[in-house]
Amino acid sequence: MLNGLNVEGSTPLHRMSVRTKLAILLVLGVALYFVSSLFVLVPAFVLAVGIYFTTGLPVRDGLSRLKPILFTIVILLIATAYLASIREATEAFFRLMALVLFAGAVTATTATGDFIDEITRLLQPLDRLGLVRAADVGLAFGLVLRFVPDIFNHYQAIREAHRARGLKVRPLTILAPLIILTLKDADTIAMAIDARGFRRPRTDRNK
Amino acid sequence: MDIRFSGASVSFGARTVLQPLTLMLTERRIGIIGLNGSGKTTFARLINGLVKPTTGTVSVNGLDTVRDEGAVLAAAGFIFQNPQHQIIMPIVHEDIAFGLKNRGLKTDEIERRSAAVLARFGIAHLAKRRVHELSGGETQLVAISSVVVTGPGILILDEPTNQLDLKNRRLIENTIAGLDEHAIVISHDLPLIERFERVLWFHDGKLVGDGPAPETIRAYREAAEC
Ligand SMILES: Nc1ncnc2c1ncn2[C@@H]1O[C@H](COP(=O)(O)OP(=O)(O)O)[C@@H](O)[C@H]1O
Ligand SMILES: [Mg+2]
Fold first, then answer.
1. Which residue of B has its CA nearest to A145?
2. I need a surface site. Which of A149, A202, B88, B217 has the fewest CB within 10 A?
3. d(CA B104, CA A113)
């Protein structure tokens, strides 16, 4: 499951600043996009596997985190193989997997709070221009990490309830209650964010 | 603590869920009882301005919940019926720090206060845990800690023992009994509030009982049984 959270440790990646890690990830992402030679992509993939599994993430946990994204990649590959060529699908596989593993390694070695702080800091210039509220974007990242496991738990509970009632588990019949549950939660969570003082005294309302 | 309701009522659309109410709350421990849907949560949310009165006004220590919204939120902390909903950050210590960061405190001050509150509620060992992996009682303690850490003088707790087993219920009961803050507690768990100085009883959006805990609870019990 994409718990997307970090493991404690003191590997070089753990010690690197969040900004450096994000910059390297960005450069790698762009660079790998332009490379199509398997002589580069395969070693990049092997390196990524090596880094990912030396972050201190238990192997089981590491593998299960990859499952959801792997599913998406496989669908993408089948489409690529069908619409383009098997060769291109192979390239895409190593490119995407390398990136996913590098990104996974960054996630596994970065505390969420640091991540959010860095995003908020990086967006400060845009905040000053009035384009975004940096703190809001930071909070949004935190909320995703916080609530994805909850949504997944809802999903499993609903699926079990389906099974218990002898209903076929179909995406559509699961999606409806899942969305309703999630939206109901979202209302209260929004109120809780207010209650905990995130939005600070409003001067633009209640004129 | 000085909470005043002056003709405050709440309607959602055409439906009035809380009839106009004028009263003053000053006691250290106040309980709120009533059947499901009787308006308890709405009443409690009026106090810290999460719900605004449709008519009338509500004030906390002289601050109006509409005009001085931010100050009221800081003065009265709210612990939601489902603590899962108010824990916003993925790791316990990050969530405790959340409210302090929003107030612009420095990192070392945040750490000092977080450590103090975790120790006060006996959950220092949970600091690095992921919040979605906590037990019910632990989640409730984290929710209370993350509100208490910002230093509100008043705590409003909405059915804090509702989803807990007997052992955790006792734990939360003792925690509430030991709070230095003023506490307003909604509860179906009558032993939790039986020693409170004052209990309010709501029925169908109306305040139908208001007095010392033993009297109000007795009247409530009698009404529920026939
Ligand atoms: N945001 C809302 N919109 C519409 N109706 C609401 C809203 N919040 C509460 N109500 C209604 O107000 C009544 C009182 O609710 P509530 O205060 O939550 O009761 P209690 O906490 O005593 O169970 C209920 O009938 C509920 O459906
Ligand atoms: Mg309620």
1. B90
2. A202
3. 15
Domain count, chain A: 2
Instruction: Using most ligand atoms within 8 A of CB, pick from B9, B10, B12, B32 the residue to mutate for ligand 1.
Output: B12
Q: Evaluate whether residue A121 is within a structural domain.
A: no
State the pTM of this model: 0.80
**Does A133 share its domain with A103?**
no
CA–CA separation, A18 and A119 (whole Å): 9
Same domain, A106 and A145: no
The bound ligand whose nearest atom lies closest to the alpha carbon of B36 is 1
Half-sphere exposure (CA, 13 Å, Cβ side) for B113? 22
Residues in chain A with CB shorter than 8 Å from the CB of B82 are: 188
Its ipTM equals 0.80
pLDDT digits (tens, 9 = 90+) for A9-38: 888 888 899 899 989 999 999 999 899 899
Q: Is residue A203 part of a domain?
A: no
> Residue A17 is part of which domain span?
12-110
List of residues 6+ apart from A85 with CB closer than 8 A: none
B158 lines ligand 1 (CB under 6 A): no
